[in-house]
Amino acid sequence: MLIPRQKTPDLDLPTLDHGNFKLSDEKSERGTVICFYRGLHCPICATYLTEFQKRVADFAERGVTTIAISSDGEDRARAMAEKIEADTLRFAYDLSLEKAREWGLYISTSRGKTSIGIEEPALFSEPGLFMVTPEQSLYYGSTQTMPFVRPHFSELVGALDFAIKNSYPARGEYTGDV
Q1: 3-state DSSP call for residue 163?
Q2: pLDDT tens across 117-146, in order?
Q3: How many angstroms separate the CA atoms of 124 and 37, rounded?
Q4: What is the CATH number of domain 30-166?
Q5: Where residue 113 falls among pLDDT bands split at 50, 70, 90?
Q6: Helix (H, G, I), strand (E, B) or coil at 157
């Protein structure tokens, strides 16, 4: 389980057009928003990533970098980036399922072709959205067991504004006895 204010696992993945993404080397004023998505087979992911793409500049204005990551290979990741007409959102691919588990992502098995006629991989990770500080500690995290009901990027931008203005710390950090 990831704990707020503690270091997250590192990520070291290829991207479509931006070289290698290594979380521990990421340079930003306030951190990185990492959106783990299910893959090309998921129509809800395409809609979600379209919204993420629209908010890249909003995050950048606040000193936050962005990246979308899946277990898909390069061809499927590129197909997703093209599908959503990504021009500023970075895409990383080849996330191992072991690394997905380190991040607390749920793993699902294939049910065959989806409603858009694309075959699901034999195993793939379910969605997760995280904000990681420049020191690579967890600030915000959300994971889902299904593709439905994900956090809204507009709300995350608004929450970020509040957190910046009020020096609001990451919450959920207590690990002692209850």
Answers
A1: helix
A2: 999 999 999 999 999 999 999 999 999 999
A3: 9
A4: 3.40.30.10
A5: very high
A6: helix
1-10 mean pLDDT = 97
**Domain ranges, ordered by start, for the chain:** 30-166
d(CA 57, CA 69): 18
CA 94 to CA 3: how far, in whole Å? 25
Q: What is the DSSP letter of 117?
A: S
Average pLDDT, whole number, for the chain? 97
Sign of CA dihedral 107, 154, 23, 172: negative
138-143 and 12-14 beta bridge pairing: unpaired
Residue 160 is predicted with a pLDDT of 97
Answer yes or no: are the C-beta atoms of 109 and 122 closer than 8 Å: yes
Give Cβ neighbours of residue 159 (< 8 Å, ≥ 6 apart): 140
Query: For residues 132 and 141, what is the distance between their CA atoms, to the nearest angstrom?
Result: 9
User: In the prediction, which pLDDT does 36 show?
Assistant: 98
* Distances from the Cα of 101 to the Cα of 20, 94, 123, 125, 150, angstroms: 21, 14, 12, 8, 19
